[in-house]
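Researcher: Structure for this, please.
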Amino acid sequence: MVNNYLLLYLVIFLTACNNNQTKTFSHWVEPYTGLEFILIPEGSFYMGNSISKLDSTNNELLHFVTISHEFWLAQTEVTQEQWQKVMGDEELHPDKPNPFCKDNPGYPVVSKSFYDVINFIKRLDTLSSGNRFRLPSEAEWEYACRAGTLSSFYTGTNIFDTLANFNAKIPSIYSDIGRNIGHPTEVGSYPSNQWGLYDMHGNVWEWVSDWYGQYSSKEEINPQGPPTGTLKVIRGGSWYFGADNARSSTRGTHDPQLWGFSIGFRIVCEKSVGQ
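Model: Predicted structure, token format:
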């Protein structure tokens, strides 16, 4: 345990020296939808909340995680226009429709359940020649969001309404009182993180593949969450919620059969060999 803490302090020091540097990674555009992907490198990180606090639920228990593979992660959330290219413009839930469906086609698509997203992925698998898609795991999502940082946000200890689309009218120790736009913004409207990913803080919550469960205190390699559960994890916060919910380590939950007006998603591409 002592060695782990020494390693943590070393990582914090190195991160402080480098976390303002945006690196350049391989970039690929999926031809059918135009969705852009960034190649995320393999690596290790501390997952969870690095700020010492009592947490009897282990909801954000700090633990060491290794992602042993590189993976192609969408640079932004899937947009309304990209959803319609794959699924058409039929409203899946007319009793509680997407309130932004007639607005900017570059807004992230919302009001889709976890199972709606799985159907989107299955259909895109058939439309994108030789490629396969999936949701990121919770660990992959946080690793990519942090982009080598250990602070509460990839922007640092705090976040401001000029850096992400969240409800800055809600008081928070992580932000100044500011504005609430009251709706999503076009994807990529705010600065990217150090690995070139947009909207990892705010705009819309994002479905990930994991069932919700308590973290383990043990070191893990490519964790996938519990094999079964009742709630799926959502990540990143949204325009409707305050800065607390937009932290890199925040774990939201939602019934996979339901949908929400501030929940969207981004995907991973398992590119075909030779591409």
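Researcher: Any notable elements?
Model: The radius of gyration is 18 Å. Residues 2-270 form a domain with the paralog of FGE (formylglycine-generating enzyme) fold (CATH 3.90.1580.10).
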